[in-house]
Amino acid sequence: MTQGYIYKITNPKGAIYIGSTNNINRRKLDYKYLRCSKQIKIFRSLKKYGFDNHNFEVITICDLKDIYFYENYYGLVYNVLESKNLNLKLPKSDDRFISISKETRIKIGLAHKGKIISEEQKTSMRLNLKKWNYENGHSMLGKTPWNKGKNFLKGELNPMFGIKRSEEWKKNHSDNCKIRNKKNEFHNKSKIVLNLENGVFHFTAREAAETYNIKYSTLKGKLNGISKNNLQLKYV
Question: Does the N terminus or the C terminus of the chain have fewer Cβ atoms within 10 A?
Fold first, then answer.
């Protein structure tokens, strides 16, 4: 078994840092000689108080494949993302996203404030995200809905309770979902269709159906696996 080490560093003021490595001796030398400038809070602490005035201890030895799980676990146990402690972030563990301290989130926000993204970049980001979701599954797949068990939204307490939509409203809503919005973008639930033969993308199934003169409902059935897909078209 290749071993991984979860370690804890405590400075003279009691501030804690949790980290992980597969080479504990090399990691100690990195901290001793301040080769950790990207970990700014622990770097400043080591520079201020000196390595010898920090308590460095291994708290868990585990299989290397489980190293991020335990780093995340002990990071949460010791609450290392609090401003008084020394971590800026924790790694992803299972279905948890990377945890980032409030201080770091503010810095990231300020760094991106006023940044303008071109339409080309937006399109590229949207295509890459849809491709990732198609290959890896949507990030919310299998997750508990945010409103599950929220009794304050049930029955008459729900702001939509008793509201009925007319047939005219339903038709208009349906039509609006099929056209581009003011930013010239399709509805956010539209899926991109790829032609495997020539590599051409179509932003919606309806657009693809019109391009290849296929009945929309027929194409949707093939793309969703309801009927046999003998076309060179698929969702991405």
Answer: N
Instruction: Return d(Cα 132, Cα 127) in angstroms, integer.
Output: 9
Q: Name the residue among 199, 232, 236, 206 with its Cα closest to residue 220.
A: 206
Cβ atoms 201, 193 nearer than 8 A: yes
pLDDT in tens, 95-153: 455 567 777 778 778 877 877 888 888 888 888 887 777 777 766 677 777 667 777 67
Could you give the angle at the alpha carbon of 18 between the alpha carbons of 12 and 22, nearest 5°? 125
Tally Cβ neighbours within 10 Å of residue 93.
Answer: 18
Distance CA 181, CA 15 (A): 51
The rounded distance, in Å, linking the Cα atoms of 42 and 47 is: 8
pLDDT tier at 35, thresholds 50, 70, 90: very high
Domains of the chain as residue ranges with CATH: 3-110 (3.40.1440.10), 187-236 (no CATH)
pTM of the model: 0.48
Cα–Cα distances in Å, from 219 out to 99, 193, 208, 209, 213? 41, 10, 8, 7, 10
